[in-house]
Specification:
The chain has 147 residues and is mostly helical. It folds into 2 domains: 44 residues, no CATH class; 94 residues, AhpD-like (Up-down Bundle). The protein has 7 helices and no strands. It starts with a helix and ends in a 7-residue tail after the last helix.
Length: 147
């Protein structure tokens, strides 16, 4: 594994609080890990929280609730934003992106926070592999277990 890939995977796993393995032979994965996480997310000048806020604003504006769910879960897992701050973000963004998209983010926040609270109450650990599989499936149509 070259240095850019190692750096990209390390940053991706930090950003999402995952354990993403290296996936060989997938051009989309290569671009995502090497460029987005190896070159862009590692740039100085903005904090992880700043980058998360911008990413959440963009995916909300685009109506991408699946991506919003991944971002909200990561923001909560990494302690970058609280549930209350995320709900305020939904209220604020609604004024700019419209009710359906703002409500979508608000619903995602409630869903993710509810899952996290339920897991905490039952003592269940976060299923990082399920989180990774969800993201991989979103971008490739497959899971890590598919052959």
């Amino acid at each position: 594994m070259d240095e850019l890939r190692r750096k990209g995977l390390e940053k991706m796993n930090e950003v999402y609080s995952w354990e993403m393995p290296n996936i060989e032979g997938d051009a989309f994965f290569d671009l995502t890990v090497d460029h987005l996480f190896g070159s862009i997310w590692t740039r100085p000048g903005l904090s992880m929280r700043d980058k998360r806020l911008m990413t959440l604003a963009v995916v909300t504006a685009l109506g991408e609730q699946g991506l919003a769910e991944i971002q909200v879960n990561a923001a909560l897992a990494n302690g970058e934003l609280t549930e209350e701050e995320l709900k305020e973000m939904a209220i604020f963004l609604t004024q700019y992106v419209g009710f359906p998209r703002g409500a979508g983010l608000n619903g995602v926040v409630g869903k993710v926070a509810g899952k996290r609270k339920k897991a905490a109450e039952t003592g269940a650990a976060e299923d990082k592999r399920a989180n990774v599989n969800s993201a991989v499936k979103m971008s490739t149509g497959k899971t890590l277990d598919d052959e």
